[in-house]
Amino acid sequence: MMEQAKLQAIARAKQQAEVEEKLRFIREFFQEAQGLDNTQNVNRSFTFSYFELMQMLGLDVPVE
Length: 64
Hints:
Distance between the termini: 46 Å
Structural class: mainly alpha
Number of helices: 2
Oligomer: single chain
Radius of gyration: 17 Å
Number of strands: 0
Order of helices and strands: HH
């Protein structure tokens, strides 16, 4: 019983970490998109394709 609870806790912790990572990426994406829009007048379509390409290439997303 205790072992099963431990395994469930580990699984929940992994899920939580995945969700937090996705949220971090989304926050950084929107932050970068807003920065590009404000400073370089880059539209959302370009910004999305830029980040999508970076993610597909396995590159780190730039952080301000």
